[in-house]
Amino acid sequence: MIDLSRRLLQGVVRTWLKTALDPARPVSGQRKMIATAARLLPPPGRVRSINHLPGGLPGVRIDPPTSDDRRGAILYLHGGGYVLGSPATHRNVAARLSWLTGLPVFLPKYRLAPEARWPAAREDACAAWRGLVDAGFDADQSVIAGDSAGGGLAVAVAQQAVAERADVPAALVCFSPWVDLGLGGATIESLAGVDPMLTPRWLAWAARTYLGGHPAQAPTASPLFGDMRGLPPTLVQAAGREVLLDDAIRLAEAIRGAGGTVSLQIEPHLWHAWQLFAGLLPAADKALLRAVEFIDAALPATAAPARKVAQ
């Protein structure tokens, strides 16, 4: 049954999402198709969503039905190659993280290319983190998470916090992170034939669209080449059938090489950012539970809510 659900969803991903992610399609059309697909992923019940972010940045706050005594929050940065995505497209995974952790989750609506190119997304992500801290959420009880480009932004925000020597989060959670916009990973080509969602051609287009001529290897564009010293404990989840697998592996190696603590979890038979399918895919539910276990271990001890797969 589990294998059947995985195969069926993989077919949907291949026929719908891979079709949507086509550089020949106008970006407005890509965004519309991604938004339509996201509506098939209803979030769990018993969560409350508020259209508000500290610091004035547009976005969505999701509150769990009950909360524990931690003074923290989760900043979730959505993926989409810096050109697609929104709080609406990633509300499912964010709501489930809130439901499972008992923490509020903030999803900023950061600026996208081509309307706003580098470094707009990075600036907005950093501003969102500063806004949470300024609003009274404790950095050492908070987490920055994200998928794909959002996973790269999570690392970039933490690197900036370390550089400023203030307000470093307690942990990072990166789902299928895109951290090298120069597409230097070996699996960009070696897994192109089996990845059901992403293509090197689309990634190259997204990188060009966002960077606008800025060097892809610059640390402020590709956090893989930034300073990894001082990063908080980091969870990296990736799939064995995604072209960005090597990004995840190299990120984990870089953090470990800088003396950091990192947990790399690879699911061999899954695809890019499969966690977004929580509620439909058992493997996605399990991945979120592992992420929640990591978050609980990184945060100060508290009476955390009982963990179970969100329904």
The average pLDDT value, as a whole number, equals 93
CATH class category label: Alpha Beta
- Nearest-angstrom radius of gyration? 18 Å
> Helix count?
9
Distance between the termini: 18 Å
Segments where pLDDT lies below 50 for 5+ residues? 306-311
Principal-axes shape call: globular
Map the helices and strands:
Layout: H1 2-20, H2 27-38, E1 48-50, E2 59-63, E3 74-77, H3 91-101, E4 105-108, H4 120-134, E5 143-147, H5 149-163, E6 171-175, H6 187-190, H7 200-211, E7 234-239, H8 245-257, E8 262-267, H9 282-298
Parallel strand pairs: 3-4, 3-5, 5-6, 6-7, 7-8
Antiparallel strand pairs: 1-2, 2-4
Helix pairs in contact: 3-9, 4-5
Brief overview:
The protein contains nine helices and eight strands.
